[in-house]
Amino acid sequence: MNFDIKDPSLAEKGRLRIEWAGRDMPVLSRLKEEFEKEKPLSGLRIGACLHVTTETANLMVVLKAGGAEVTLCASNPLSTQDDVAASLVKNFGIPVFAIRGEDRDTYYAHIKAVLDTHPHITMDDGADLISTLHAERPEQAKEVLGGTEETTTGVIRLRAMARDGALKYPVIAVNDALTKHLFDNRYGTGQSTIDGILRATNRLLAGSVFVVAGYGWCGRGLAMRARGMGARVIVTEVDPLRALEAVMDGFEVMPMEEAAEKGDFFCTVTGDIAVIRKEHFLRMKDGAIVANSGHFNVELDLDGLKEVSKEVRQIRDQVQEYTLTNGRRIYVLAEGRLVNLAAAEGHPSAVMDMSFANQALCCAYLAKHAKELKPQVYVVPQDIDRRVAEMKLSSMGIRIDRLTPEQEKYLSSWEMGT
Question: Which residues form the S-adenosyl-L-homocysteine hydrolase NAD binding domain (predicted)?
Fold first, then answer.
């Protein structure tokens, strides 16, 4: 078995952490039992480019239980948990190509190592696997039944590919499942981003001004949690509807140019490029802390920041101090990469349980139906979304009402009126 990890001796520690995460992933656990019996992925090779975390490990185990040959690489150089990678290789026999802190060349070499397995299904978090395949190995696309995409940034890239006629096989946007983005993006990102910022800085949020760039589901969750910690929250947006919603939710809304002068903490969650630029850095207070929780570090213009800085030093783990030409100091967390994964452990297992249940069920769906689908981006089938929600409620011991025949008839007809 080929693999490339940091240290196989970390496997036992990783195994225990995988077990710990699995205790809070009951939906995925139930799917594992089902997949072991039915083998819906038998004979298929799955190439996954995801954050190598304890939660991801539990998903990989389920896919293997379903009969698939699974190979995993990292979707971010700083999100890999090396003990988890070691355990997947040693304890579960799953090839992993991921080392925390790997450079760009190694990162893409690992992606190509996954592509070397000639996957039938691709599984992405950010679309780097699928974009590399399309750009460098287009001939392999005919071998692929379909793919899944985990995050907003990746879905944006894939929809652009589909719009340009470049997408060569169908992809299911797992990110857009209600049981994913309403919970993972909101509650997962909100809690884990605050966790990463606090682990990196040990600074007090209460009484501070916290600027959230972007008010999608991730931004909503982050703003909610920052306010819950006692911060005064400012939201910056380009979408008038989302900006209006932020105002109605009780947050201040203003352009980044104005917010830059007020904030003590800044965090981008937009999925776009150059959200905080050098002109914004130059307006910030001495000691401002800047982080990103969008998928790629491009949300912060770090090259522009270097241009207006006279000194850069590592002052704490995951904290770089930039001394600007005006003498003020700006602190960038986790090199501008996903702060919740680089400085903490990512989303709590309970929300990833639903996200990864969607991934597993969508893989099984593709195994059955991919040949019926055109090369475009699809939403998660509604019955999968509802099933995940029902399984989650059941695992929590929660029961809900069901429509009576009379109610069903009323909702599906027009004759009854008022």
Answer: 185-346
**How would you classify the pairing of strands 232-236 and 252-253?**
parallel
Angle CA 135–141–144, to nearest 5 = 140
Closest CA to 319 of 308, 328, 329: 329
Is the CATH code 3.40.50.1480 the one for domain 8-180+347-395? yes
42 is in an annotated binding site: no
Chain segment 7-21, per-residue pLDDT in tens: 999 999 999 999 999
Tokens in use for 147? 């793919």
Tokens of 226: 């920052």
The shares of helix, strand and coil residues in the chain, as percent rounded to the nearest 5, are 50, 15, 35
Residue-range domain boundaries for the chain: 8-180+347-395, 189-342
The answer to whether 340 is a known ligand-binding residue is yes
220 carries a ligand binding annotation: yes
To the question of whether residue 180 is assigned a binding role by annotation, the answer is yes
Q: What is the CATH number of domain 189-342?
A: 3.40.50.720
Residue 21 carries which side chain, given as an amino acid letter?
Answer: A
The dihedrals phi and psi of 395, each to the nearest 5 degrees, come to -65, -25
Distance CA 269, CA 247 (A): 18
Confirm whether residue 412 is marked as ligand binding: no
Q: What is the pLDDT of residues 355-388, one digit of tens each?
A: 999 999 999 999 999 999 999 999 999 999 999 9
Q: Which helix (H) or strand (E) holds 333?
A: strand 329-333
Please check if 236 is assigned to a binding site: no
